[in-house]
């Protein structure tokens, strides 16, 4: 009888606990930042570590801007006769190029008709994302030019003419095709969405009215009809969150929308909100954050996010560079969102495909140290001599190859990151950008007596010694054909942490 009573008590306890957890998950979010910030970022996002960004729209037709600038800003550069980025510009480069190429009376809106997407195959894109080892993707459902990849009636209404992919150019619901294809895989489906639109007539006339009568209903249409796992808000900086009515919109998203219990959001919801409120924090062409909050670094394989025919092969980050960028971000507790820019026909440039597949090959061997990992007490081990954290001077956006200077090609007087670290519970992963000669010393680490070290991608066990407060690994000699991966190598230290 006591056993039956005990069993009933346990069942009741489990039921009550389950109900409490469900209630906690369904806790109503109030339209204020304290309440919004209390909602945790779903754990799958921190586990994912690697995502793919896609910038694709009418700007993919001209696909041109000076090196060191964003080609997806083509319309703004054209209309404002200004330019911003890495380099010295007169400001009229895009305008001059446009007039020379298309003539002085050719409108940016004509590019909508030429955005045909005739070669777009959503299933091929989705397979590439999988093969690259990405756990989520993010597509520009609408960039700052206001053109939508889905049939948005709101867009047509405020612009006064058809300005969406279903009615212009492609004559297809490109976003739905991609949603369906991606959701057949394990990759999470995300949508980038710009709050503002540079030249929308309503935006130019009344910004707050634009927010309530255009942005809010369009955002809700996007969420309800395409059910994204992630929403990457942008274009928020021209108004405060209060004028955007972002808290009210996010309260609707979490309380009433079809994805409220699972959707992940970023931090771009109004001037001053970034790095302070919302979901995960976002950096752009930067180095790293401290990892105290979920975060994500976004950058392109080339410099531009949108496809830029002005970029040459050497303007694209190398395979090695991209692997090291991933390591630096993940070791600091973040995710890397790496951008590709398809052309107007829907082809992903082969050089971008190659780079993604190279990352996938590396992750096939070393993914255990990346996916689901968390930041250790130290992100990396710097060399004992030399200054740390070299950065180039005179650039607004941090070029990708800075990471090579911090690992294998240091500037005079500067040290390097010898080892990147990640952890999973009691296991520690030490990832080195160069294959060690004979020994590898990990400073300030006292291993648990039951620790065991292996090389990921092989069945090799690594002998080691505890020498004071340091651990010295006796690394075997391996030929180039014997090392399990290119560019970086992972030593798994099982039961390293107490």
From TrEMBL:
The biological processes this protein is annotated with in GO are: fucose metabolic process; glycoside catabolic process
Q: Keyword annotations for this protein? A: Glycosidase, Hydrolase, Signal
Q: Which residues form a coiled coil?
A: none
Matching SMART domains? Alpha_L_fucos
What cellular-component terms does GO give this entry? lysosome
Q: Which residues are tagged with the site May be important for catalysis?
A: 298
Question: So what EC number does this one have?
Answer: 3.2.1.51
Q: Which family does it belong to?
A: Belongs to the glycosyl hydrolase 29 family.
Residue ranges of every copy of the Glycoside hydrolase family 29 N-terminal domain listed in the record: 21-368
**Main function:** Alpha-L-fucosidase is responsible for hydrolyzing the alpha-1,6-linked fucose joined to the reducing-end N-acetylglucosamine of the carbohydrate moieties of glycoproteins.
Q: Which Pfam families match?
A: Alpha_L_fucos (PF01120), Fucosidase_C (PF16757)
The answer to whether keyword Mitochondrion applies is no
Q: Where in this chain does the record put each Alpha-L-fucosidase C-terminal domain?
A: 418-494
Q: What's the name of the protein?
A: alpha-L-fucosidase
Could you read off the lineage of the organism from its UniProt record?
A: Bacteria, Pseudomonadati, Bacteroidota, Flavobacteriia, Flavobacteriales
Originating organism: Arenibacter nanhaiticus
What InterPro entries is this protein classified in? FUC_metazoa-typ, Fucosidase_C, GH, Glyco_hydro_29, Glyco_hydro_29_N, Glyco_hydro_b
